[in-house]
Design a protein that fits this description.
heterodimer, A: 430 residues, alpha+beta, SH3 type barrels, MgtE N-terminal fold, four-stranded antiparallel β-sheet, 19 helices, 37% helix, 22% strand, B: 436 residues, mainly alpha, Amino acid/polyamine transporter I, 20 helices, globular
């Protein structure tokens, strides 16, 4: 059986321990931090930061220069004091206490921001890995030095101990610990976890709301284009603004292309005139035209909340042709359940649902199966009318037409609901 | 056209007025300035709580206009520290307790916050004592009024969000005008020359001769203007309001507004008591004694207005103090915090808030409790924590990693260190005196 106490230690056991010269036994200082090299699966200790006295400048002692020891640790012995240096952590190195201790981190498993109370290290021979974050009350009490007393008391009272709460390194995303930009003049996360981009955009947007301004920007910058676009869609214009203003300019066209056009247009609308022109210039022609057209609709109208990303077909098209188009569009278009039938002048003639198409024979013309009694909304109508229509007829999307009956866009159910949300004065559970 | 064509409606009639595009002119700037108003004004004004009003009243009654000049250093200290907590809140986006935990570790944060928790309870008790005194001035019974008041202030936070509570507090702040009105009534024919003279050329005789009582009141004035709960609440409120770096220039206006509003209130309390109580040689111990004594001298409304001011100040502080406690403890332990959250989302935060109110209100209801002793005790424990908090704040304010290039210069730091030493000394002296 493995003796757990011989293999696991907490960073709070290590910090503050005295460091002495192995030969002479002369004191050098106290451990103030440990430096780990970030590698899979767990970061490994590479050196310790030793602080000589209260006002001394900390020096770095490579882990190889430390004599092997058994747990519990009393003090660290340095074999060769000549190896001490005052260099800072390298690119792939993390100063553990500085980055994690008492700081907030992102729990990628639970998708929430959480505070670290202690760090759990695994020791095998002379190697030490950072394996867990202690995020529970036990860690807090251990740091205070009250753990033994509290354990005794709870054991005596209710025959129980406070349970530890660990978070595996595999689910940890560090957050910036400084508001100062790095050498490149930017504020970004030092180590980005691959799993960061797998978080659901709704979770990501909730997390962003919980963070401070600087943490938010650094985290957002680290997202890939798809995650960034989806997360922006979840946020209110107020919270979008600082994010889009801080992001790499080169990334913006990609992000806008990945966002649904109506959301992207709304977002552009809140930016300053100069910034908007700048972004529009950088967009490809078709995207720019679409953005300009969408943003020409006054706020609060149906036109302002519609999307221009949907499927149309001429009445003469066959079911087979429609299916091919749907398959093609399904990758990027959200509104694939309703196929709108328009004449060559783009005037709305009817609608066919995906269900009808699936049921019909491949060679049937769409005009035969379409429903020509379409409920539609004028692009200048107040958006509340669109919402009422959704509540009344319960369909998935509604077409928006101009005064000549020409199809301009569709309003999606979820966008209509998003508009409704502020009026309902409810807060969604997290 | 097929379909029943909703587009046949008269569309324009359905359109709500579309928001005009904003040109950031004169008015817009004023609106921007007003939109950042809140945390500072509220913290500063409700810092004039029951204890503060008592001290100013005693000061006016005992020394007349002689100590009016103290408004200047008192405001300076208030604004200096409010500017610090506000700046740190805006730049780091974190509460003060959170920063202390992150930069100084669990132990420092825990013991500061635990001491602050005890002080918070004592202070809340003092606020409810203020409520009790105020309702008794209106002839009501504290055993009926306190439970109702406690329940109301509790409900207010549970049922509202930050925006609403800020609005309610700002309305509450306007009630401090009661002191101005009561002052104007009491003065009748104010001796502006005498008042102006004592402001412009203060008689510093007692100060230089180390008159004991004079110094004690001076120290108490500074002590009551700056309580440890204030920077904690202010910074957390700034963060919860979501103030950004772009609000910074507008935020300076709020600091100015705070200074003006607090200064005017202090001025009128001292002047009112000076013009009436001092002229007639009446000595007082508490704010309600002051109000009672004002009655026959200054007309009946002066008394009522004084009481209203005391009531609003105490009620408001009875919300803010427990909030400050709940914020700092939650931030230290890493629990969710904020009035924008619901009870189920931040259970520890609201539990702490509830406990503070329940204990504070209950102590006041204990028969035979000396409310003056409660007040003195709360001031003493405040004085013990304050120096530590001030030193931590000064260190945080100068932390280059945290403050994103907004670290203060040498002159600011000299002022800061001097102020910290003087206030700490004042705080410790207050403790020693109040324990005697």
């Amino acid at each position: 059986m493995i003796d757990i106490d011989k293999h696991f230690l907490y960073i709070s056991d290590l910090i503050g321990k005295s460091v002495v010269n192995a030969g002479s036994g002369k004191g050098i200082g106290r451990v103030s931090d440990i430096i780990v090299t970030n590698k899979a699966p767990y970061p490994e200790i590479s050196s310790v930061l030793v602080k000589p006295g209260l006002f001394g400048k900390p020096v770095l002692a490579p882990w190889d220069s430390i004599e092997p020891f058994e747990l519990p640790l009393r003090r660290l012995k340095i074999r060769d004091a000549a190896q001490l240096s005052d260099r800072g952590p390298a690119e792939n190195e993390i100063a553990v206490c500085d980055t994690f201790m008492d700081k907030q981190i992102l729990d990628l498993d639970g998708a929430k921001v959480i505070r670290v109370n202690d760090l759990h290290l695994l020791k095998e021979n002379h190697k030490i890995w950072l394996v867990h974050m202690d995020v529970g009350m036990r860690g807090f009490l251990r740091r205070l030095g009250w753990l033994k007393i509290i354990d005794t008391v709870t054991n005596w009272l209710v025959s129980m101990r406070i349970q530890p709460r660990f978070l595996s390194w595999k689910h940890v995303q560090a957050l910036p610990t400084t508001t100062q930009p790095d050498q490149s003049g930017q504020l970004k996360l030092k180590v980005v976890h691959q799993k960061l981009n797998t978080l659901h955009p709704a979770d990501l947007s909730e997390i962003l709301k919980d963070l401070s301004y600087y943490e938010r920007i650094a985290l957002f910058r680290s997202l890939d284009i798809v995650s960034a676009a989806e997360t922006l869609e979840q946020l209110t214009p107020d919270s979008q603004k600082p994010l889009i203003e801080c992001i790499d300019k080169a990334k913006i066209p990609g992000i806008i292309a990945k966002m649904s056009p109506d959301k992207a247009a709304d977002m552009l609308a809140i930016l300053s005139q100069r910034r908007r022109t700048e972004i529009l210039k950088a967009l490809p022609d078709d995207l720019r035209e679409e953005m300009t057209r969408l943003s020409s609709h006054p706020e609060q109208t149906a036109g302002a909340i519609m999307t221009t990303d949907f499927i149309t077909q001429p009445p003469t098209a066959t079911v087979q042709q429609a299916l091919d188009i749907i398959k093609q569009a399904a990758g990027t278009t959200e509104a694939i359940y309703y196929i709108y039938i328009v004449n060559p002048e783009n005037v709305l003639q009817g609608v066919v649902t995906l269900r009808r198409i699936m049921q019909a024979a491949p060679e049937t013309a769409l005009s035969e199966i379409m429903n020509s009694k379409v409920k539609k909304i004028s692009e200048n109508a107040h958006k509340d009318n669109a919402i009422k229509l959704f509540i009344k007829y319960k369909f998935g999307s509604a077409p928006v037409v101009d005064s000549h009956g020409k199809l301009k866009g569709v309003i999606l159910f979820k966008d209509a609901m998003t508009e409704l949300l502020p009026q309902m004065e409810i807060r969604l559970p997290r | 056209m097929n379909g029943n064509g909703l587009n046949n409606h008269k569309d324009t009639a359905l359109l709500e007025p579309v928001r005009p595009s904003i040109k950031l002119g004169w008015w817009a700037s004023i609106i921007m300035v007003l939109s950042v108003f809140g945390p500072g004004i509220i913290t500063g004004n409700f810092g004039n709580d029951a204890g503060g009003i008592t001290t100013y009243s005693i000061c006016g009654a005992k020394y007349g206009y002689q100590m009016l000049w103290t408004i200047v250093p008192v405001l300076f200290v208030l604004l200096l520290y409010q500017n610090m907590s506000g700046t740190m809140g805006i730049i780091t986006g974190k509460g003060l307790a959170e920063l202390i935990r992150e930069q100084f570790g669990v132990k420092t944060a825990f013991y500061v916050v635990i001491a602050k928790f005890i002080a918070g309870i004592a202070n809340t008790t003092a606020e409810f004592a203020g409520v009790a005194a105020a309702v008794e001035l209106f002839g009501s019974n504290k055993y009926a009024a306190i439970p109702i008041a406690a329940f109301l202030v509790w409900m207010l936070t549970i049922k509202t969000n930050y925006k609403k509570i800020e609005r309610i507090f700002l309305i509450g702040c306007s009630f401090f005008a009661a002191y101005v009105v009561s002052g104007i009534i009491a003065l009748k024919k104010p001796d502006w020359i005498e008042i102006g003279g004592s402001l412009a050329r203060p008689d510093l005789g007692p100060l230089l001769n180390f008159d004991r009582d004079y110094w004690l009141i001076l120290i108490a004035l500074i002590g009551t203007t700056l309580a440890p709960w204030m920077p904690f609440y202010h910074q957390s409120a700034v963060v919860e309001k979501g103030m950004k770096k772009s609000d910074f220039k507008y935020y300076q206006w709020e600091t100015l507004g705070t200074g003006l509003s607090v200064g005017i209130v202090i001025f009128f309390i001292i002047v009112t008591c000076g013009a009436t109580l001092h002229k007639n040689g009446i000595q007082i111990q508490t704010a309600d004694e002051a109000a009672r004594a004002l009655g026959p001298m200054a007309g009946v409304y002066a008394k009522e207005l004084f009481a209203i001011g005391l009531l609003v100040a105490s009620l408001g502080a009875a919300i803010i103090l427990p909030l400050s406690t709940a914020f700092s403890v939650s931030e230290t332990f890493g629990w969710e915090s904020g009035v924008n959250k619901k009870f189920a989302e931040a259970p520890q935060f609201y539990t702490l808030y509830t406990i503070s109110i329940v204990i504070g209100a209950s102590i006041v209801l204990l028969p035979g409790i000396s409310l003056i002793k409660v007040m003195l005790f709360s001031q003493a424990i405040n004085g013990l924590i304050l120096p530590i908090v001030l030193v931590l704040m000064a260190l945080l304010r100068n932390n280059k990693k945290l403050m994103a290039g907004e670290c203060p210069g040498l002159l600011y730091n000299i002022i800061l260190v001097t102020a910290t030493i003087l206030i700490s000394a004042a705080a410790v002296i207050t403790v020693v005196v109040s324990l005697k």
